[in-house]
Each structure stands twice: as C-alpha cells, then as structure tokens.
Design brief:
This protein is α/β, with parallel strands linked by helices. It contains six helices and twelve strands. The structure holds glutamine. The site of glutamine has 11 residues, from helix 5.
C-alpha cells in the first residue's frame, strides 16, 4: 500500500498543528503554498484560521482555481473551522466579497457561536470515532443547512443551543467546526487518513 502524501494548505492558519498530527499517523506531509505542491498531494487539510484571508491569499498565490479543480476531481479534503467555511457551497454572515472553494453542499454560518459564546470547549459524540471527542471551538462556524448527500457526524449544544451541526462528511470531503488538531487527539485525523488510504490504493 503506497504511503499517501497529505498536504496542509499553508498560506495562513494553524498549519503546524495539522502537520504534527498527520506526521504521527505515518503519512507523508507537505506544506502547500503553490500549485506544484498541491499537485504532489493525494489529499489536503484546510486548517483553521481566517477564511476570508485564506481565500484571498489562495487567489493571490494562484491556488484558488487549482484547489477548486482538485476538489471537483475528487481529492479528499479535511477542513477545520475556517477550512470548513472554505469547503462550504454557501456562507451566511460572510463578508460581501467572501469566496469559497465549495464542494460541500452545506450552508455554514460564520462566527455563529460568537453571538453567545465566543470560544468554548466541550465534549461531543462523533460518528466514526469511538468515545467522546473534546471539541475546541474558536470563533467557530456551525452548519446551518445540509444537502441530501451530506452525512451529519456531530452536533453540539453549548449554552442550551439545541444540537448545532459541527461535523459533516460528503464523499471525500470531511469538515469540523472545531479544531481536532489542538490537544493531541489524532482520532479524527486518523479517520481522514484511513479514508485517504482507502481511496489512493488503486493509483499507480
Ligand atoms: N471565524 C473564522 C473565519 O470566519 C474561523 C475561525 C477559526 O478557524 N478558528 O474564518
């Protein structure tokens, strides 16, 4: 079985934390800042950070269209927080000129929890992961609506807010509102790596 190369979008965001998590899982990692680096990847992580800045930098560094193209062609992508926003087809409370890569048939609300609790941590149950997951939410989005192909993997109920969707999957695209790269629990990265390994075994 070939070792997949998993890139981390590295123009902005918590890149190092994702690289570290992936390295412990025995895949080849690559910080992606230019199209040639994206080409070398079997899969990609979009980290947490600031989604409008990430999209603008992606355009400046000529990564926006190559990223959209790879997503269209089925590259597995795992987005966390701002990364989830970048994967969303629709954004509420975005900036007027907010661009996304798209691919996930979801509507995300940016800074959604911000109105009640800016940042918080909590335990949640996530489909595909055994035992509770400690979710770290930092000015996090929630998923407001999902299309028919989208599987809801986790919900959270902060301060009585009933069951907001915070983790989803649609085919090769996985996204969480929270930051599994923070805190040393690599189970969600493992879920992604397992999926990447399963989809890259047939390649030459
Ligand atoms: N609020 C940020 C945004 O809109 C996301 C925050 C994060 O990634 N921790 O991009």
């Amino acid at each position: 079985m070939p070792t997949p190369t998993i890139g981390v979008f590295a123009l902005q965001g918590d890149v190092r934390e994702h690289l570290r998590a992936l390295e412990t899982l025995g895949v080849t990692t690559l910080a992606v800042r230019r199209p040639s680096e994206l080409e070398a990847c079997d899969a990609l992580v979009l980290p947490g950070g600031e989604s409008t800045t990430m999209a603008k930098l992606a355009r400046t560094f000529e990564l926006l269209e190559p990223l959209r193209d790879r997503i269209k062609r089925g590259m597995p992508v795992f987005g966390t927080c701002a990364g989830m926003i970048l994967l969303a087809d629709r954004v509420e409370d975005g900036t007027a000129d907010q661009e996304t890569l798209g691919g996930l048939d979801i509507t995300v609300r940016r800074n959604a929890f911000g109105r009640q609790v800016d940042s918080f941590e909590g335990e949640l149950a996530m489909a595909g992961v055994e035992g509770p997951v400690h979710g770290v939410f930092i000015r996090a989005p929630w998923v407001e609506a999902v299309g028919p192909e989208v599987e809801v993997l986790a919900r959270v109920e902060p301060d009585g807010d009933a069951g907001r969707i915070v983790a989803v999957r649609q085919g090769p695209l996985l996204a969480t509102s929270f930051h599994p790269e923070v805190g040393g629990d690599t189970r969600i990265h493992q879920l992604f790596v397992d999926f990447v390994r399963a989809t890259t075994t047939d390649e030459p």
